[in-house]
From TrEMBL:
SMART domains (alphabetical): HTH_LUXR
Listed GO biological process terms: regulation of DNA-templated transcription
Alphabetic keyword roster: DNA-binding, Transcription, Transcription regulation
UniProt xrefs under Pfam families: Autoind_bind (PF03472), GerE (PF00196)
GO molecular function per UniProt: DNA binding
Domain HTH luxR-type: 172-237
SUPFAM superfamilies: C-terminal effector domain of the bipartite response regulators (SSF46894), Pheromone-binding domain of LuxR-like quorum-sensing transcription factors (SSF75516)
Keyword Plastid among UniProt keywords: no
InterPro entries: Sig_transdc_resp-reg_C-effctor (IPR016032), TF_LuxR_autoind-bd_dom (IPR005143), TF_LuxR_autoind-bd_dom_sf (IPR036693), Tscrpt_reg_LuxR_C (IPR000792), WH-like_DNA-bd_sf (IPR036388)
Full protein name: LuxR family transcriptional regulator
Transmembrane portions of the chain: none
């Protein structure tokens, strides 16, 4: 990502942080759609109490159709995200059933693209969310988009979720975790794309010791895995890449 593009994304995420209501979140999804140059950007939140809402750029007619037909039951994207912690490329999901094929074809008729990428996010007490980008292009172009933007999409997803959690009633703000210098170094090197072996060599420690640092950082951040820990550290400004 160029310096100019990173500055633009930082400005959008700053507006996300300053949002005080759903309209503010909606405006950010529209800005991100234009920034990423995709058809749609959507964030869907299910609170710990079961309350749901979504913001995004899908046509209202499609949203109404989706709800009226109960497509939540058969949507492979939702099912896939519930079963995974890592980002989900839609083309890797099972679309072989007749109902899911018809669902996909109808979604495309309503303006969704043939490609999608969703980041599942899990929060405290059962809170769950999905951040999705959607576009129309061939598989090679989409694979390149995902490769170029994967880290940014994870960061954006967790930034959205941090803001959504602010809207939870009676929720107390989390204290900033106190990560050690070694924990910060490990997460930073992982964030820039180093393998665990490369990180251990750079820090002149064993991979066993590195694993202990990563697990300690993950626990302090309340993260479900290493990718989640890196995303939370990035979104809270604990590490910078």
């Amino acid at each position: 990502m160029t310096v100019a593009a990173q500055a633009r994304l930082d400005a959008i995420l700053e507006r996300l942080e300053e949002a005080t209501d759903r309209d503010g979140l909606q405006q950010v999804t529209e800005e991100l759609r234009d920034f990423l140059d995709v058809r749609h950007v959507v964030y869907h939140w299910v609170s710990a109490a079961g309350e749901q809402y979504g913001v995004g750029t899908y046509a209202s007619e499609w949203v109404e159709r989706y709800v009226a037909e109960g497509y939540l039951r058969i949507d492979p994207v939702v099912q896939g995200c519930y079963q995974r912690f890592h980002p989900v490329d839609w083309k890797r999901l099972d679309w072989s059933g007749k109902a899911t094929r018809n669902f996909r074809n109808e979604a495309i008729e309503y303006g969704l693209g043939n490609q999608g990428y969703s980041v599942p996010v899990r929060g405290p007490g059962g809170q769950f969310a999905m951040f999705t980008v959607n576009d129309h292009c061939d598989d090679d172009a989409w694979a390149q988009f995902a490769e170029d933007n994967r880290r940014s999409l994870i960061l954006i997803a967790h930034s959205f979720n941090e803001k959504a959690l602010d809207f939870e009633p009676d929720r107390q703000p989390d204290a900033a975790p106190n990560l050690s210098p070694r924990e910060l170094d490990a997460l930073t090197l992982i964030a820039v794309g180093h393998s665990r072996a490369q990180v251990a060599e750079t820090l002149t420690i064993s991979e066993h010791t590195l694993r202990a640092y990563i697990e300690s950082a993950r626990f302090k951040l309340g993260a479900v895995n290493t990718v989640h820990a890196v995303a939370r550290a990035l979104s809270r400004g604990l590490i910078v890449i």
